[in-house]
């Protein structure tokens, strides 16, 4: 009788669901695939009944013993067997060695089984066996000659035991070895002496010591003399604070000297601790398994086309993560897999969202992690890789929506979106999106770059992002002068913008211009008044500046989406000539008595109050104590969102509980948007997209960017963004 693989049975189950209409598929899929499936079903029915498809979500770790003849001692080990382990199959195997004075439970204590389960079930890793021996006293001895050595016991007694007892492959390509600290030393000692046995070797904070061992057994000496070796793939890593750095750096130098290819990763955080190794288990396993084939079932993405009006009222579930997650986007195909009933280990659903999705016809996998609604936020913040699907109207600032292949869900084709359903929970006409950006100064070298390349070049990298929200805010700190950089009146400061560059604001679709900056009067008060008239003629709203004190202090009230949003802004830093007075135009100064009266009044009359502040500029990611106190004071007065528009170097975020118990969103500094500062930290910036429903704050979607060539901002790549966010979340004090 023909034997059917589990993947084939899974395909048949999927075809059954297609035929029953439980998931959508194009007509040609049913017409052409179903007859094939029926033929296969007839050929393999009996076997399919006796060996059901794998439905396990978890593997298992078991402890066993073997006898070492070399030291006449019973030795213990732990072994991980993957979900649906089949003794008649053959799996690749990783041998992982523990650190000094630890046991075979070292790797399990780091949570390696959970990472393996998630990776294997989610398709990121192939099914594998992981064998973890306990070296005991012999592994702590510097013995290298004869049978009573850890390397001899490992190679001649432990490894044969694993290959005899478990369904593992015995080829070099399917066998890897690695270790932590002392275990990393042994992994390299064994793999570099017997490179024909292992396809990969990893040293995680591996402890290497020059001159401490005989040269023929010291991995450092072996590596330095390894030119021409058919070496396995090699990985080394450590945290920046690891005390074993010298030996690892020396191994890197030795391998480089011998011309041996290898990866050496120094993570910006981490010491010689379990917390460090646990944080990078996924990276380690991805390295070991990089060349192993994943036996994934074929996935036919369902074709979705809703027949209801997706532009009106509907039920809409949005992929979201903890605000402090480093991911910005998720793949559409990954969401389609969830829609089709496949398990995603990173997905955590609230009970109400699960029920709503099932009611909408989604085949949520029964193994999907589900938590009570009240526990969802904590669950996501505790799992940096996790995400959820949440009703749009249930978003909060502590949950950040994920883009789908780079686009916010409302910018995608909702008629083909898998988690949109006919309903009345959300009225899209009540959604308001406001994008806030940091410092804009079309002056100095930025002015020269735009003059050389043109305004179309300047906006080309970022325009597609900023034109999508309903309102775009910029904080323009520099007035337009007719003969810039020349002046017809006394110059008070050094910055001006050219008239022809005003077109940049048109091309970006600017709606709101903040005038709290400290350079708008640099080229005189007439230039300021002239620029103010240019904004008015262009139909752009202004805030925080004006011809007189009353207009400079006036809030901007935005009626949109059935709600009312109040925007207030001021300058907390000066200089004096930049500030409005009875005799000159300029920025409104942040007088506390005025703010204590104005902000509570706005809170009483409007749905959401947003305050932007031009504070003192500091070359640091974290705000000084005085800045923290002032921003929190503004929140206590009644602001729901407080944003710093002064920062040239982006600053941290905070969720602040106000004196009256509200949860205020504070961002101490957005960074530059258009400016000519070129250091690493000052070309990186945030844009905060405040999302409201019926005028009430839902959440804040963040966008990260980099200024290129002095005058062309662009979105960060996924890798750039992950690096930047990891830094900013660490500086913000968010949990890793």
Overall description:
The protein folds into 4 domains: 6-50, no CATH class; 60-288, Alpha/Beta hydrolase fold, catalytic domain (Rossmann fold), CATH 3.40.50.1820; 313-418, 3-Layer(aba) Sandwich (D-Maltodextrin-Binding Protein, domain 2); 430-732, Purple Acid Phosphatase, chain A, domain 2 (4-Layer Sandwich), CATH 3.60.21. The chain starts with 5 loop residues before the first helix and ends with a helix. The model is unreliable at 1-52 (pLDDT under 50). Helix 1 (6-20) packs across helix 2 (27-50). The radius of gyration is 31 Å and the shape is elongated. Strand 29 (653-657) and strand 30 form a beta hairpin. It is built from 23 helices and 34 strands. By secondary structure, the chain is of the alpha/beta class.
Summarize the structure.
With 736 residues, the chain is α/β, with parallel strands linked by helices. It has 23 helices and 34 strands. The protein folds into 4 domains: 6-50, no CATH class; 60-288, Rossmann fold (3-Layer(aba) Sandwich), CATH 3.40.50; 313-418, Periplasmic binding protein-like II (D-Maltodextrin-Binding Protein, domain 2), CATH 3.40.190.10; 430-732, Purple Acid Phosphatase, chain A, domain 2, CATH 3.60.21.
